[in-house]
Amino acid sequence: MQSTDIQAAAQALINRRQNKQVTGPLAPELRPATVEDALAIQQQLIVKMAQAGDSVAGWKCALPIEIDGLKDVPVIAPIFRNSVCTDSPCPIQLDQGVCKIEPEIAFRFARDLPHRPEPYSEQEIVAALSGAHLALELILSRYLDPDSVSYLEHLADCLFNQGLFVGPEITVEKAFSASEISFVLTGSPALSESRLDGKHPSVYPQLPLFWLVNYFSQKGIDIKAGQLVITSSYAGVIELAPEVTFRLQYEKYGEIGLRFEID
Question: Roughly how many angstroms between the first and final C-alpha of the chain, as a whole number?
């Protein structure tokens, strides 16, 4: 892609965010054709969001995947500071009339990990963490028909991320042991109790975290103190009606109590 097309694609995606629009695919000339195109659009999105007064509060990631005929495709997207919530009620934009969330664990960095030639060891990465949190990723596709859009277009648009709710803190040691979590969802009005057996898609949530730090380091991107990293949902997407007060218990790890209000 030409630099002008990358800039235009990033601006088009920012316009959707700022105006809370869900529309069709990008114009053909603005659609990324390679992983490098998609990540370049993401980086321009970060630049333009910073110019508008918003910064990167963290990242969502997973281990690389095979998709659309491509191998070792990164699963990475920024989470912007103005979309991070720690209190109830939490603003959310509805997706097809419902609130969509993914239960996750978020790791928080206590200090910077600047990019460097040599890889970071797992011990160095762990030493840079201040803790972990129960968290909910807020999900939204800004494409009217997301199934018809390529993975690269979703990657450019931050992989369905709408925001992040950061819940109670847990220890890093507990987070590292959280391979499987059973969830209990309750709430009112008219939300019957449901149980979900969750399993982290990478077995342990820290494995994508370790991968992300060194992938970024190779790309010349720094991890900043205070940033949060989520590393995939334990139970896919959970759909909730708006204006419902609910509690999501994370087995022995704690619980999140929350109400969403339509933004």
Answer: 34
DSSP 3-state of 68:
coil
- Looking up tokens 């494995």 gives 207
Token reading at 219? 């790309």
pLDDT in tens, the chain (263 residues): 999 999 999 999 999 999 999 999 999 999 999 999 999 999 999 999 999 999 999 999 999 999 999 999 999 999 999 999 999 999 999 999 999 999 999 999 999 999 999 999 999 999 999 999 999 999 999 999 999 999 999 999 999 999 999 999 999 999 999 999 999 999 987 788 899 999 999 999 999 999 999 999 999 999 999 999 999 999 999 999 888 899 999 999 999 999 999 99
- 142 by Cβ neighbours in 10 Å (0-12 / 13-18 / 19+) ranks as buried
Q: Which of 104, 126, 131 is nearest to 205 (CA)?
A: 104
The C-alpha torsion from 7 through 78 and 54 to 240, rounded to 10°, is 120
Q: Which pTM was predicted?
A: 0.96
Tokens of 22: 């869900």
What are the backbone dihedrals phi and psi of residue 223, each rounded to the nearest 5 degrees, phi first? -85, 135
